[in-house]
Amino acid sequence: MTKQLPISLHGGAKGSARTQFAALCYRVHKGDVQVLLITSRKAKRWIVPKGWPMEGKTPAASALVEAWEEAGVKGVASDACIGVYSYAKQGEEGDATPCLAFLYPVRVTALNKSFPEAGERSRMWVSRKKAAKFVQQKELAKLIVGFVPPENRRLT
C-alpha cells in the first residue's frame, strides 16, 4: 500500500474544494504494468481521465465513464479507491478551483479509436515510473508509482 501524501487546497478555503473521480487506466503488457495517460484539452499536459460525480453512479462507475469519454477506454473499474490527489482546476476566467480527485483503478480491456473527446486529446501507454515523471501532481505521481493491480496482489 502506498502512503498517502498530504494534500493541498492550493490556496482555497476548505469549503471551496470540489470532488472529482479519476481513473488510473492500466494493462499488464508482457508482464509489466503500463498506465494510460491522456492530454488535457487546453494545456496539453499529461493527466489521467477524471470528472465530476455523476447522479446515480458510484465513484468507480463515474471514473469509468470519464475513462470512456476522455480516452476511449472500455474496461473494469475497481470499487477500491487507491488514494486521493489534489490539483487546481483552471477556470475559463483564469480562476482556479481546488479539487480533490479520488483515484480508481480501471483494467483496460479495449481501447477504441472513436470516442467522444478523440479529436481533443492524445493518449499514450507508459510504465508507472515514466507516467509519474509526466504528470505534474506529486501526489498522483506517488500513487502511480506505488500502484499494484488488484489481480497481482497476494494475500499475506
Textual characterization of the structure:
It is a single chain. The chain is an alpha+beta fold and about 160 residues long. Strands 1, 2, 3, 4, 5, 6, 7 and 8 form an eight-stranded mixed sheet that branches. α2 packs antiparallel against α3. The protein is globular and about 45 Å long.
Q: What are the secondary-structure elements, in order, as H or E? A: EEEEHEEEEHH
Main β-sheet: number of strands, strand sense, barrel status?
A: 8 strands, mixed
Q: Tell me the helix content.
A: 10-25%
Kindly state the mean pLDDT as a whole number?
89
Low-pLDDT stretches: none
Contiguous helical run count: 3
- What is the 3D shape? globular
Q: What amount of the residues lies in strands?
A: 35-45%
Rg, please?
15 Å
Which terms summarize this structure?
156 residues; alpha+beta; 8-stranded mixed beta sheet; 3 helices; globular
A few lines on this structure:
The protein is an alpha+beta fold. It is 18% helix and 37% strand. It has helices spanning 59-71, 128-134, 138-145, and strands at residues 18-29, 32-39, 46-47, 50-51, 73-77, 83-90, 96-111, 123-127.
List the SSEs and their pairings.
Layout: E1 18-29, E2 32-39, E3 46-47, E4 50-51, H1 59-71, E5 73-77, E6 83-90, E7 96-111, E8 123-127, H2 128-134, H3 138-145
